[in-house]
Amino acid sequence: MKKYNVRVILFTAALCVLLSFFPIKGYAETMTLTLESVGGQSSGPDYVYPYDFSFDGSTTLTPLMCISYENEIYFGESWTATLMPISGNALFVEAAYIFSLAAAPGASATTIAEAQWANWELFDPGDTNLLNNVPAGYQGDINTMLDTASNFAQNNVNTTLYSNLNIFAPTLGSQTEGGLPQYFIGDPQPSSDTPEPSSFILFGSGLFGLAALWLRRKCVV
């Protein structure tokens, strides 16, 4: 009976620690976004990807891409956003495809800026202010991105390629400043929040050592 109890205790301890890394919970429907900083500026008058946010008061900054052109937000402004999945919505899949071009490792400043403008045009087509502010020489590449994204989405509307991405839809009236929150796209789970494999190896080794020590003591006694 004692052996069983100790084993249960060891297993429970292991489970509790693992759940602290990966808690069992439902899909997070909403979160609080706070705009902390931006990563750069296009050759036009507007900031482009990345917009760096903190989620629910976290100190970790997560880069998102803005997909609403007309509305304005301010540094330090917070609001509530609903997370909307990409798969199943052709427009969202197009936005995810374009976002992936900007977020790709080694993407050039021009590619990032063009992808940003492409997503703005995707969600605000025909906006006069937007079209007037597109930097000279960008529109051809932007049109190519939009066409490619549209063709991709037609055949991959239920793709899982972008299962880590979400659309951040703002809850109107939840903002802390006067600016109207914008829509964003990105990954709500910062990679730095995921434990490294070495952490699990060390933890597992420690549990194994505890179990071995206990069994040895039981054999000696």
Q: What's the rounded overall pLDDT mean?
A: 80
Q: Profile the largest sheet.
A: 6 strands, antiparallel, barrel
Give the H and E element order. HEEEEHHHHEEH
Shape label: globular
Q: Write down the domain tally.
A: 1
The rounded distance between the terminal residues' Cα atoms is 16 Å
- Strand tally: 6
Strand order across the largest sheet? 1-2-3-6-5-4
Structural class: alpha+beta
Relative helix content: 40-55%
**Count of alpha and pi helical runs:** 6
Strand-residue fraction?
15-25%
Taking pLDDT < 50 over at least 5 consecutive residues as the criterion, the unreliable ranges are 8-12, 14-28, 192-221
Overview of the structural elements:
With 221 residues, this protein is α+β, with helices and mostly antiparallel strands. The protein has one domain (29-187). Helices cover 43% and strands 16% of the residues. It contains 6 helices and 6 strands. The chain has helices spanning 2-21, 90-103, 109-123, 128-133, 139-155, 197-220; strands at 30-38, 51-55, 61-66, 78-85, 166-170, 184-186. Strands 1-2-3-6-5-4 form a 6-stranded antiparallel barrel. Strand 2 (51-55) and strand 3 form a beta hairpin. The chain is globular, with a radius of gyration of 23 Å. 26% of the residues are buried.
